[in-house]
Design goal:
By secondary structure, the protein is mostly helical. The protein has helices spanning 2-17, 24-34, 41-50, 52-62, 64-67, 76-111, 114-134, 150-162, 170-180, 185-211, 217-247, 251-274. It is globular, with a radius of gyration of 19 Å. The two termini are 31 Å apart.
Length: 275
């Protein structure tokens, strides 16, 4: 029963932090220290990735009409534009796929530690503040998804690739890249959501294949529960973010990242000194 409550908390944290540009990794490593699940490490490694499926499903549900090229409610032109959107998503996913598949284990081994997470939280927090100040009085060049060019998409894809370094935040990195290119906040956030579908689905599939389907009944239940909670909370988080950025910038998330980075560094630094 205790693990059930912990999984609910993990699902809530995942659902919030996956879409807000504040790094799910930064929050989960702290949560792992405070709430340890009574499961083997192999299952835990898979659990933290696979509960992202709930977050992905939230994007699909919210944007189903926009993402569905077969909708009978769309004109032929709208259907073609939807197909073009999916082509852009695929192109934007290429950098992460090219680097992520062969180098994933190396990156996890070398960079998956609290100090790298803390550093990335602070670095991208500063970037958000600097970029927002730089773009303050400038009109965005891109206000529609259809205006995203192939070079822009590839650059945004490179930023998503950089998010392989723990603590960067996939949504945070891609939004930073898009803002640098003059993309409006709303379009930057939306395209980030769409890029997440192949990236996170692929990562979840790799973990499932690696782990197999040798779950106990309890593990299967915990996995489904975490995914369901993540889905429900993601719906709320995505809608909140899209409402928020209509009238506000991303600087508050930048300051939050800096504060969290300092907390992570101090938490694990003091823990290392005392151990």
């Amino acid at each position: 029963m205790l693990d059930v409550l912990k999984v609910i908390i993990f699902g809530i944290v995942e659902g919030i932090t996956e879409w807000l540009p504040i790094s799910s990794t930064g929050h989960l490593i702290l949560l792992e220290e405070l709430l340890k699940l009574n499961q083997n490490q192999e299952f835990l490694d898979m659990f933290y990735v696979v509960i992202q499926l709930g977050a992905i499903l939230a994007v699909v549900v919210i944007y189903f009409h926009k993402l569905n090229p077969f909708s009978p409610k769309k004109t032929q032109k709208q259907k073609m534009m939807t197909v073009q959107l999916w082509i852009k998503v695929v192109i934007g996913s290429i950098p992460a796929a090219v680097i992520g598949i062969p180098f994933n284990d190396f990156i996890e081994e070398k960079f998956n530690n609290a100090y790298v997470v803390a550093a990335m939280l602070v670095v991208y927090g500063i970037l958000f503040i600097v970029i927002e100040n730089y773009q303050k009085d400038k009109e965005p060049k891109v206000t529609k998804l259809s205006q995203l060019t192939i070079p822009m998409i590839l650059i945004i894809g490179v930023f998503q690739m950089l998010a392989m370094i723990p603590g960067t935040s996939r949504s945070g990195a891609t939004i930073v890249g898009a803002l640098l290119l003059g993309v409006s906040r709303a379009i930057a956030a939306e395209f980030t959501f769409f890029l997440a579908i192949p990236a996170m689905a692929g990562a979840s599939a790799v973990k499932l294949i690696h782990f197999g389907f040798n779950f106990t009944a309890m593990q299967a239940f915990l996995l489904l529960l975490g995914t369901a909670v993540s889905f429900a909370v993601s719906i709320v988080a995505i809608k909140f973010l899209m409402r928020y950025i209509k009238k506000n910038d991303f600087k508050v998330f930048g300051w939050y990242r800096i504060a969290l980075g300092i907390i992570v560094f101090l938490f694990f630094g003091i823990q290392a000194i005392l151990s």
